[in-house]
Amino acid sequence: MVKLEYNEVRNIQIDILNRFTEYCNLNNLNYCLYYGTLLGAVRHKGYIPWDDDIDIAMPRPDYEKLIQNFNGFHEDYEVFENRIQENYALPFAKISNKKTKIIELSDINFNNLGVNIDVFPLDGLPESQKIKKSLLRRIKIIRTIYTIKSVKYNDRRSLYKNVILLIGKIIFYFYKSKKITASIINEALSYDFENSSEVACLVWGYGIREIMKKSYFDKCVKLEFEGESYNAPFEYDKILRQIYGDYMQLPPIDKRKSHHDFTAYAK
Questions:
Q1: Is pLDDT at 258 greater than 80 in this prediction?
Q2: Nearest alpha carbon to residue 71 among 88, 54, 53
Q3: Which of 38, 126, 196, 253 has a CB 3.0–4.6 Å from the CB of 33, allowing a cystine?
Q4: Which contiguous run of DSSP H or E holds residue 145?
Q5: Averaged over 182-202, what is the pLDDT?
């Protein structure tokens, strides 16, 4: 295998994004740029300079159609999702390039996963504030267990944190990552998207500050990202302000770093 350079990984991700949007357009599926990719489109007209991934959001009904039917659309691309691949244990989907492979700094690595883009479902929420908080609390607990299972020992982390991590790994040793992920997905599916007035990416995301009016996603506009145009929520400013605050303000220099640690290879 040949190690891929940073710009090569980005070029492959853009190609995956283009094939994904082609599929969505052909099948009338709704999608939008989200998280750092939406922020990058608005603030930089492309990648955030220190970012290394592409994030997409889809309403749950469209997301389900994607994961059930995408594979076979193109010989070079494959959708990975917890309910499809036996060895995949994340609660959201990835669309991967089959001709590449990535190795991440994690105790959970997925066989055959290549350079990819992330696809997050937007799920409905209950009207009751009390029930809503209870749902988010349950998901947060399950996600914390998943994080303990997946995060790898790192000597850049303090000894205290590594000891706490080790204790957590011992406590949850017999918990299977795939079943933990299935629990997250089941909780997220508790409320119907179509009948909800608020939505959020419950399986991942930023918790309570990410709860949005569903109407924010009713219409799309086109935003430039690396020289191409893609769907973005019409109310992208409200969404970005709710998640990131003053999002046009660059973070301090010491915060301008990727949250991912992986090496990519061409097969």
A1: no
A2: 88
A3: 38
A4: helix 129-150
A5: 97
* Number of domains the chain is built from: 1
Residue 162: the pLDDT is 76
N-terminal to C-terminal alpha carbon distance within the chain: 5
CA distance 221 to 230: 8
How many residues in the chain?
Answer: 267
Rounded CA separation 252/119 (Å): 28
Instruction: Name the residue range of residue 238's domain.
Output: 2-266
Pairing of strands 55-59, 116-124: parallel
**What are phi and psi for residue 200, nearest 5 degrees?**
-165, 160
- Show the tokens assigned to 230: 């893609």
Please say whether the dihedral angle defined by the alpha carbons of residues 131, 61, 184 and 206, taken in this order, is positive or negative.
negative
C-alpha dihedral over 32, 186, 23, 240, to 10 degrees? 10
Do residues 37 and 56 make contact, with C-beta atoms less than 8 angstroms apart?
yes
Per-residue pLDDT, 80: 96
